[in-house]
Amino acid sequence: GCELTASTKSYTFQVDEKDDSDHILALSVVCLMDGAKDECNVVEVVGRNHENQEIAVPVANLKLSCQPLLSLDNFKLQPPVTFRLAAGSGPVHLAGWHRITHREDAFFEEDDDDLSEEDEEEEKELAPIMPAKK
């Protein structure tokens, strides 16, 4: 997690580019912390699109009197990503998880020609799908 305040308006999550792993960052909850004023606190996610252009997308607009917390249901992001307090003074806390998937050097592919006798028998036993009767 991280915390955004009037003095710390942004936080960047990045991974080592030399790392040969896949990284997924998922944002679960954005909430106002103790000491927040009753003002609009807008949190943006800044990342890159498919054309490698920087884009900023607001993901939360929190106000102490009406919506102090927002569940983002594990909103998945591809690092590097920056969280920015675009409006308000916070403090706003962001929580989530980081998953690392290590790539394997060899990829395994199945070849349809290598079906065992049991697989061939199972394929023969399946009945075709018949159209519904009207």
Q: What topology does this entry show?
A:
Blueprint lengths: L1 E3 L5 E4 L7 E12 L8 E8 L5 E9 L6 E9 L3 E7 L4 E11 L14 H9 L9
Antiparallel strand pairs: 1-8, 2-7, 3-6, 3-8, 4-5, 4-7
Please describe what this structure looks like.
7% of the residues lie in helices and 47% in strands. The protein is mainly β and 134 residues long. It has one domain (2-102): Sandwich (Jelly Rolls). The protein has a four-stranded antiparallel sheet with strand order 1-8-3-6, with no helix packed on it. A four-stranded antiparallel sheet has the order 2-7-4-5, with no helix packed on it. The protein is extended, with a radius of gyration of 24 Å. The model is unreliable at 105-112 (pLDDT under 50).
Kindly summarize this structure in a few lines.
GO terms for molecular function: chromatin binding; histone binding; RNA binding. By secondary structure, the protein is mostly beta strands.
Please name the defining characteristics of this protein.
chromatin binding; mainly beta; nucleus; about 45% strand; about 130 residues; Jelly Rolls; RNA binding; Nucleoplasmin_core_dom; histone binding
- Helix and strand run: EEEEEEEEH
CATH class type: Mainly Beta
Average pLDDT score = 82
Helix content: under 10%
- In what order do the strands lie side by side in the largest sheet? 1-8-3-6
Give the oligomer, counting copies of the same chain as homo and different chains as hetero.
Answer: single chain
Q: How many discrete structural domains?
A: 1
Distance between the termini: 57 Å
Strand content: over 45%
List low-confidence stretches.
Answer: 105-112
Determine the number of helices (DSSP H or I, runs of at least 4 residues): 1
The name CATH uses for the topology is Jelly Rolls
Overall 3D geometry?
extended
Biggest sheet descriptor: 4 strands, antiparallel
Measured on Cα atoms, how large is the radius of gyration?
Answer: 24 Å
Q: What is the annotated CATH architecture?
A: Sandwich
Region (Disordered): 109-134
Main location: nucleus
Protein name: NPM3 protein
GO molecular function: chromatin binding; histone binding; RNA binding
